Amino acid sequence: MSTKSNVNISKKTFISAIIILMALLMLSGILTQIVPTGSYIRTEVKGEQIIVPDSFSFTSGQRLPILKWFTAPIEVLFSGEGVIIITIIFFLLIIGGAIHILNEASILKSIIDSVVIKFKNRKYLLLAVIVFIFMSLGAFIGIFEEIIPLIPLMIALSLELKWDKLTGLGMSLLATGFGFSAAVSNPFTIGVAQEIAGIQMFSGAPYRIIIFIVTYFILTTFLIRHAKKIEGTINMGETIAIETGKTLGQDQPNSTSCQAVLTNEKGVKWFLACTLLMVILILLSPVVPIISQLNLPIIGLVFLVSGIGGGILSGFSLKRTLNLFLKGARSMTPGIVLILLATGVKHVIQTGGIMDTLLFYSSEWVSSSTSLQALLLVYLIVFIMNFFIGSGSAKAFIIIPIIAPLMEMMGITKQMAILAFQFGDGFSNILYPTNAVLLIALGLADLSYVKWLKWVFKIQLIMGVISIAFLWIGLIIGY
């Protein structure tokens, strides 16, 4: 017997995420009542606001009203980041709508069944290849939000291979996040940070390639061990987050599954062509400025076309295709609330006037430390800042102008300062509940944040120790 389910933000995950984010929103509000307000002078460089070092001063003024804590999730839409937040929301709705069409047309099911048949005796090789691809997207190109459309596909593939949803998230979300951590030429973290620090863009790559390779093998080993542990023990009643057209208890696709590839060949080819176009656009984004600036809406548009075109080529009428799209988009609306709450936490800290104060206190702490301690403190500062500011390039414009000259004064190379910044930014990308991409991914997988945190804690701890070792080695070799 076949089963059908749709991509949606599950009620359980939604409620637990709401509770966590509301608690964080209140905590941020309390901080604005305790921490003194202050600010750095900022100057505009290439359209971005960069902090002027040694320009901090405490300010006096009214504390952020308590009412603003609760209105922050709405006010953030009218802030400087309102456009990107609205873009992410529309991106989420498009994904929900397009995937629902692809599910109903059995396009994703056909592709997954074909992959399972081809790799049924080499599935751990398939896992290793997928992890490498997703890690490379984060490490070399700086892709993160754009992988959201692929997450349900990876979850479905994982379950078809007798693994679980966590393995599917590990192959995609976790791998991309770790790619950010072990970035080699990520233009949004490495590129921006090196340009601000005044050193050659993408210099020092050989050492970062070594870090990437080590991180890849550790993550792949972790995922394979987990997959082997749970293989064959999945609850047979568990259904996957997108349509598979069969129960998980079957060892391989049945004749109906195999036939789906043949009967919907047009829809499958259309989706694969659109996916190839998305990959090409992603690869071009670092070298084509207009694509880089509009990457998210462009990817969303291509995915929209892939969904609607796939539905029509599968024999659906335009009316039915659009109705399916609207139904899928509606199922994703709880994600909008999560995104607004997550960005509202940052908005409270910024409008409360304490972000620069926290950064000033941190820089004073760093300047009175030894070389290794200073690097570890930079790592920790960025790690904490990522809780409030998810964008790697935004953090670079805020913190690099301060820590780069500070490190140089302490006899530490700017390259090492950027490495510490990179580690702090990357490893927390898939850890904090204020990260909208993580919340969306967990909602698609119908997994609670607590369960995710328990699962990634061990690998995060291991990579934390490994990254500290790389900082220590970097100091020794004069990186």
TrEMBL record:
> Which terms are listed as keywords in the entry?
Cell membrane, Membrane, Transmembrane, Transmembrane helix
The membrane-topology field of this record reads: Multi-pass membrane protein
Query: Which chain regions cross the lipid bilayer?
Result: 12-35, 83-103, 124-144, 205-224, 270-292, 298-318, 330-349, 369-389, 396-418, 430-449, 461-478
Cellular component (GO) terms are: plasma membrane
Q: Give the location in the cell.
A: Cell membrane
Q: Which domain of life is it from?
A: Bacteria
Q: Is Transmembrane helix one of the keywords?
A: yes
Known Pfam families for this protein? DcuC
Q: What is this protein called?
A: YfcC family protein
Source taxonomy lineage?
Bacteria, Bacillati, Bacillota, Clostridia, Eubacteriales
What InterPro entries does the record tag this protein with? C4_dicarb_anaerob_car-like (IPR018385), DASS-Related_Transporters (IPR051679)
Species source reads: Oceanirhabdus seepicola
Coiled-coil intervals in this record? none
